[in-house]
Amino acid sequence: MVIAGLGVIAMLSEIFSFKKLLYPLVLLGLLAAAVLAGLDWNHDTRIPLFGNMIMFDNFSAAFTIVLSFTGFLWFIMARDSFNEESSLTDHYALALFSLAGAVVMVSFGNMTMLFLGIEILSIPLYVLAGSRKTDVHSNEAAFKYFLMGAFASGFLLFGIALVYGATGSFDIPKISLYVAEHATNLPGFFYAGVLMMLAGMAFKVSAVPFHFWAPDVYQGSPTTITAFMATIVKTAAFAALFRLFSNCFIPAATTWSGVVWTLAALTLLTGNITAVYQQSAKRMLAYSSIAHAGYMMLAILAMNKFSATAVLYYTASYSVSTIVSFTVLQLVAAHKGSDLLESFNGLAKKNSFVAVVMTIAILSLAGIPVTAGFFAKYYIFTSAIDSGFTALVIIAVIASLIGVYYYFMIIINMFFKESTDDSPFVIGAAHRFLLIVCTLLILALGLFPDIILRFWI
Amino acid sequence: MKDLVGLIPLLPLLGWFITGLFGKKLSRTAAGLIACSTVLGSFAISLGLFFEVEHLETHRFTVDFFSWISAGTLQVPFSFLIDPLSCLFLLIITGIGFLIHVYSFGYMHDDDGFARFFSYLNLFVFFMLLLVLGSNYLIMFVGWEGVGLCSYLLIGFWFKNTAYNKAANKAFIMNRIGDLGFLLGIILIFLTFDGNIGYAEVFDKAKYMSSGDGTITAITLLLFIGAMGKSAQIPLYTWLPDAMAGPTPVSALIHAATMVTAGIYMVARSNILYALSPVAMEVVAITGIVTALFAASIGLLQNDIKKVLAYSTVSQLGYMFLGLGVGAFTGAVFHVMTHAFFKALLFLGAGSVIHAMSGEQDIRKMGGLKKALPITYMTFLIGTLAIAGFPLFSGFFSKDEILAHAFDHNKVLWFLGMLGAVMTTFYMFRLFFVTFWGKFNGTKEQQYHLHESPKSMTIPLMVLAVLSLVGGFVGLPEIIGTHRLEEFLAPVFADSKMKLFHAPLSHDTEWTLLITASIVCVVVIAFAYQYFVVKGRRPAEEGEEISPLAKTVSNKYYIDELYEALFTKPLNWLSDKFYKIFELQVVDGIVNETGKLVNTLSGVLRLLQTGRIGFYLFAMVLSIILILFVTTF
After folding, report:
1. I need a labelling partner for B154 at 20 to 30 A (CA). Which of A223, A341, B468, B488 fits?
2. In angstroms, rounded to a whole number, what is the distance separating the alpha carbons of residues A240 and A256?
3. Is the ipTM of this complex over 0.85?
4. Of A210, A273, A405, which has the smallest distance from its Cβ to B605's Cβ?
């Protein structure tokens, strides 16, 4: 089933000849992929494909749905910015390949597939980050991302090699079995391998101190690509990290949980605190995205029966809110020619619809009740407290309080400050549709959190 | 009809939604029509239900909509309970509510906030319907709070006037005090009845409990505090007279059909709980009679036409609580109904007078209005006779039923009740004679503008007049005919009746009481006629010398000033101190310092982001080494 979904995606991207049809086809294809993944739901047994290379289970299905749907939303958002470029179809294809990589990452059954998924995801992104060829920042972002990404891949590969050395297999179930049976007498380099893999993945999710690339790359890349990184890449990376650790390395938890604890705490504090000082809204959102990685790491750490749901819920709500905030940011930046926080001044008077939608998205990111973000944080925190990580939850709560501060700066600018000019602020129908759908989703997830939770319970 | 139950509250809600959102785009006629027709629709369905319930074997049914809250042991379904009691209230709310809507159509016609006014009215009706329809205390509470909110919005409808806003605040705050009691009562019910707050579950259990239980007394007293706030009983009554600030139809809505009857409804609904607690019953009865007398005495010397009516409402509510307290549940509900008729009539009549007098509310400036306003005059007369308890008018039977029970319970209560009735009759006829008889005392300009109100205002008056005239016949005392209302409500009060059983009054006693009441009423009217018409006395003008007692009474016993000195000022002082010391220094200090710290940290951490890729890579590698190093050892 998943191949069918992927096939659609891959095939679509090959159609170079009729550009006009491509866009609706991509959108339909993504929706179809989401539906197909939904059909695979609850086939009780896991579906092994390609000799266990890919293992399609409920976890993968759920995340594939989230990913495809986010992709769908992202394509609506990205339409205009792609039209500016000459090589439209190339970008479509690259984004779709990257998305395919993300799907592989959430359904791998073998270490090599994990690595391949990450590379399929990353390589098109390196190109996309630099897709604004004439822009120095874009080029710089692409280069930084690529160079550091290569390093991280190196760590990951090294880690995989070490784990293979210790367990004698790339196959997830086999590794899992081996680790469980020899929990007490694993060689030291196995743990080193696990930690190396953790570091490699931490790079992808932009956890501190492997986050340095994120602010620069997020800011330099075209806003649409940044949105892609902040939503799809982050979702896939977290799902992969969760899948890897929950399937294989639970017996070795004593070794890595301390590390994850420290990384999470550092990520939460650094992300939120640094965001406070930023003048550029885009850079601020980049730091906020780092901070959100910190929250999700709590679920990895907690690793109990709610964690998978919590991560799923968090990625879904976070992705939707992020899409909205980046869409609005892109619109504002296009309108004002700058992505500084000041560009938001007086938005409420110019276009109250956009201002209200943005406010809802930001409230969701800040985790204020009635929005999806509140329950997302709530589930993550309860899951972590259940596993006894109360101290870290306290840090997380403090961090999110700091978060409220800088999130509200945008709201204050929109509603209480005057704009310097009075040119009208208009948005297209597609973006309006996107914003409405996302806002409804944010509110729906916040009002009826059961929709997603019911999957697992 | 069962399937349509949901529509009863939904229609006004829809009306609120439409008139509230699109009010500016709709024409006045359209907005008014929508608002009126939604309430009319609810009334039609309620009427259908009313006839249906009577023929049901169980006399009740529940309509489940969805599971509203499920948390642990707490299961609260969103469901409605239809039984004779809720049916009767539905009819009063939607019926009287509809007439008030129609009346407002004429009354508010020149107001800028026309659509806004109707949207609030509809919302008010919606919450009141929710209050009486809910099948558990929580839904009642939602309606309860909603009604409080709407009264706030409507009392402060003309929000440009500061005094009106203050009145709105006062109503809201007084109600909040009561609401807290109600909420605590609900929580206590939840704890006492094993996590149940549904009527069916709670009352079924209560049936088998023995009388005099301490917890039940606590519950009923807490609930009664809620009722005190909403139904304006001592000591939480001061908001109601001030609620006059709202447009007159609002006063009618608050005083007659909704809001203040909520307290009565709640006590009547919880009748079995009260039946279990003689102490609480006694408290209710005494609060009721004291309020009745107190408010009636204030009413004697008020000169604002709406203020007089406001105190009469407080006083009449006191009678209803007296009825509840002495076990005359049917009598109290009966009085709610007749009171709804004549009080709505009187308020709308007063509105018509004010309308004709170009906004004048002081009765000393009126007089001789009967020629200019014939319809208002006739209907107002009927309303006055009804509230005075003139024989055969609606108020006569309901008041008599309450007083008869009071007599049975304790002769002193009966005597005080009669005293209150004397005062009621006197101040109502004082109001009536001063306003409509004698000669005109207003300005020339006012006299020139005197006119009867438009049809949309007089028709509701006439309908209400007919109801006030004949409304009492559904509840004839046993000695004259059948008490249809009692038969209808019997299933609701059956259990408490068993608990409170006592022998009915002998027929002779009952006749005596009826005739005494009639004679007293006629005598007082004659006296008032003699005093105000024949002798031509008029209420004292501003600045005129009056006795100290009269001064105290006309200043409402200085209760507002007392509250101001006792509660408002100390609270303001305390809050000022807290603001200056705790807030400005402690809280702000902590918050600002934290903010500064975060800012500084942010400034430092920001510098780590050098932009140089070499440093980034170095940091990554260093971190890995650190991680490996630390975990190995």
Report:
1. B468
2. 16
3. no
4. A273
